[in-house]
């Protein structure tokens, strides 16, 4: 699913109005009735409803919803903010007029002084102050109003977006000036800003309301942001050819593990084999021989010269894909080994965990990463490489820049893992759960990504599929273990089931 910018959504709104030969007032009726329906399906008419409307079309939606709710027997107190009688948008103004004769509505127009109504946890607030037309962060009276609503404890339902929150970037906005919604009723699309952890406190639960926007415009209006969902992955996964042999499924060379961290190699290897790699070879220090051959008997073991950490990454065979990092450690000898490898290996590779930490210890190596490689940092690994970032938004912006600069794909891992490609496209993952915040789950992901690329999926798309599959494996495993009990081996061992549930069976 495309995630549009505010400008893109405006274009789709306009195209819908033109294609259906309707007015923006008609579209507002559609939006408002969807909002009213949500209120009706959640609360009885006896619920106290306080509605705040701003001067634009977001306010227009709120006023139209108040009218529709009144027709259904709901009482509401409405506050329309028309400060200094500036100007209401035409649709807002028409809906103000339409509201005047409605029963059960206590209408207040705020022009200069505002006496706030008492609000408490038993009340429902409908927030139609500002939507996608927000020009700058809220301040002054609006800021005070937002804080008043937030402090009241009322159940706040935001129309389209929480007022004060921009659809994309919110750097520099004081968090006190944004409505904290319990429920956001987003029109047709989620917004990019909804996916950043720092904004979860504002958007609350998100429900997307289908406004039946013009399909052609949705297909044509460009965007760089996509939400990857089950159907996208289902459509892309290929069933096996019955005559396949293991080499058709690709070979993975995995450099992972060190004394004390051999489990990381096990999890990455298991992720790769469960995701369908034909043959997996693990290069690890000698101490890994027994644990690896016992825990993952399906993989080949290649011993490093060293007993406890990796010191030489030599490729004696040709592999479909090479992945480095899980549990490798960052001893000086390992940093040297990564240095030598990056300077000699010219194919795209996968760099995770300690491979990234080794590069962070010798940042000049960033320039030696083969073009087209895939980097899979979690927040701390990303920040070690590219400086400290305070928010997901800052981190994503930086990832977009460095992905272009070094011509690498960056998988920013988190609740919504974001895969950032050098062409500026960002794929937001929708699978996975909080139980996956457990040691080793990222190691498993490295193996899954390697397996997808080994099996011939184009790397820039294969990585997106792999991230979804890994999250789905977590979702399958969590059904048995719950978020508290989920451990990384559960995820690795569920990868096969995840793929099996997605691959189309022959008719
Ligand atoms: N375009 C359409 O056809 C549709 C739009 N809809 C609604 O329209 C909304 C967008 O409407 P608008 O473009 O009118 O924008 P808004 O209603 O978000 O706000 C615009 C108004 O707010 C004022 N404003 C902006 N930033 C301000 C600030 N920082 N401080 C004080 N005042 C500020 C502007 O001067 C303008 O009067 C959407 O979020 C959605 O709720 C829906 O009715 C569906 C259809
Ligand atoms: N709260 C969460 N919701 C969904 N997925 C999560 C969550 N926390 C972590 N994950 C996923 O689990 C994995 C953790 O990776 P990482 O931090 O590298 O773990 P490790 O280094 O222990 O292997 C990533 O794929 C990440 O997206
Ligand atoms: K709003």
TrEMBL record:
One GO term in the molecular function aspect is:
ADP-dependent NAD(P)H-hydrate dehydratase activity
Task: Tell me which cofactor or cofactors this protein depends on.
Answer: K(+); Mg(2+)
Question: What does the entry give for GO biological process?
Answer: metabolite repair; nicotinamide nucleotide metabolic process
Q: Which PROSITE patterns match?
A: YJEF_C_3, YJEF_N
Q: Which residues form the YjeF N-terminal domain?
A: 9-219
Q: Which residues form the YjeF C-terminal domain?
A: 229-502
Superkingdom of origin: Bacteria
Q: Which residues bind AMP?
A: 413-417, 442
- Catalytic reaction list: (6R)-NADHX = (6S)-NADHX; (6S)-NADHX + ADP = AMP + phosphate + NADH + H(+); (6R)-NADPHX = (6S)-NADPHX; (6S)-NADPHX + ADP = AMP + phosphate + NADPH + H(+)
Under InterPro entries, the record lists: CARKD (IPR000631), Nnr (IPR030677), Ribokinase-like (IPR029056), YjeF_N_dom (IPR004443), YjeF_N_dom_sf (IPR036652)
Q: Where does (6S)-NADPHX bind?
A: 57-61, 131-137, 142, 160, 264, 327, 378, 443
Oligomer status and interactors: Homotetramer.
What is its biological role? Catalyzes the dehydration of the S-form of NAD(P)HX at the expense of ADP, which is converted to AMP. Together with NAD(P)HX epimerase, which catalyzes the epimerization of the S- and R-forms, the enzyme allows the repair of both epimers of NAD(P)HX, a damaged form of NAD(P)H that is a result of enzymatic or heat-dependent hydration.
* The protein's name in its UniProt record: Bifunctional NAD(P)H-hydrate repair enzyme
The gene for this chain is nnrD
């Amino acid at each position: 699913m495309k995630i549009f910018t505010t400008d893109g959504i405006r274009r789709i709104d306009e195209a819908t109005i033109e294609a259906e030969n309707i007015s923006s007032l008609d579209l507002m009726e559609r939006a408002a009735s969807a909002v009213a329906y949500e209120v009706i399906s959640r609360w009885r008419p006896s619920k106290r409803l306080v509605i705040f409307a701003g001067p634009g079309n977001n306010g227009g939606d709120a006023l139209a919803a108040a009218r529709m709710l009144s027709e259904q027997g709901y009482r509401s107190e409405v506050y329309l903010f028309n400060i200094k009688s500036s100007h209401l948008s035409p649709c807002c103004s028409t809906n103000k007029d339409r509201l005047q004769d409605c029963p059960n509505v206590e209408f207040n127009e705020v022009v200069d002084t505002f006496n706030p109504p008492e609000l408490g946890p038993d009340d429902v607030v409908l927030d139609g102050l500002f939507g996608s037309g927000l020009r700058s962060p809220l301040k002054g009276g609006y800021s005070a109003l937002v804080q008043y609503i937030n402090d009241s404890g009322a159940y706040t339902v935001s129309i389209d977006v929480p007022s004060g929150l921009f659809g994309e970037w919110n750097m520099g906005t004081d968090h006190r000036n944004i409505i904290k919604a319990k429920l956001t009723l987003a029109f047709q699309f989620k917004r990019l800003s909804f996916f950043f952890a720092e904004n979860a406190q504002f958007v609350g639960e998100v429900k997307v309301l289908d406004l039946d926007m013009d399909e052609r415009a949705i297909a044509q209006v460009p965007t760089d942001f996509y939400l990857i969902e089950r159907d996208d992955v289902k459509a892309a996964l290929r069933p096996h050819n019955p005559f396949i042999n293991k080499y058709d499924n690709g070979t993975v060379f995995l450099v992972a593990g060190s004394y004390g961290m051999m489990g990381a190699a096990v999890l990455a290897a298991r992720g790769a084999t469960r995701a369908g790699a034909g043959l997996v070879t693990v290069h690890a220090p000698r101490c890994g021989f027994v644990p690896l051959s016992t825990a993952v008997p399906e993989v080949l073991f290649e011993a490093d010269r060293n007993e406890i950490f990796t010191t030489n990454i030599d490729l004696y065979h040709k592999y479909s894909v090479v992945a480095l990092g899980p549990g490798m450690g960052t001893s000086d000898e390992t940093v040297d080994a990564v240095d030598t490898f990056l300077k000699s290996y010219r194919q795209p590779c996968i760099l995770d965990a300690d491979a990234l930490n080794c590069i962070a210890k010798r940042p000049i190596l960033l320039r030696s990463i083969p073009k087209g490689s895939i980097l899979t940092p979690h927040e701390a690994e990303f920040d070690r490489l590219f400086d400290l970032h305070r928010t997901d938004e800052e981190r994503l912006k930086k990832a977009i820049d460095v992905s272009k600069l070094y011509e690498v794909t960056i998988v920013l891992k988190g609740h919504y893992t974001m895969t950032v490609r050098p062409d500026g496209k960002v794929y937001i993952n929708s699978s996975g759960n909080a139980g996956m915040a457990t040691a080793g789950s990222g190691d498993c992901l490295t193996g899954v990504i390697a397996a997808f690329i080994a099996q011939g999926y184009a790397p820039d798309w294969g990585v997106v599929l792999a991230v979804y599959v890994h999250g789905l494996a977590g979702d399958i495993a969590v059904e048995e273990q719950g978020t508290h009990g989920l451990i990384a081996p559960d995820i690795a061992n569920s990868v096969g089931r995840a793929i099996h549930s997605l691959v189309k069976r022959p008719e």
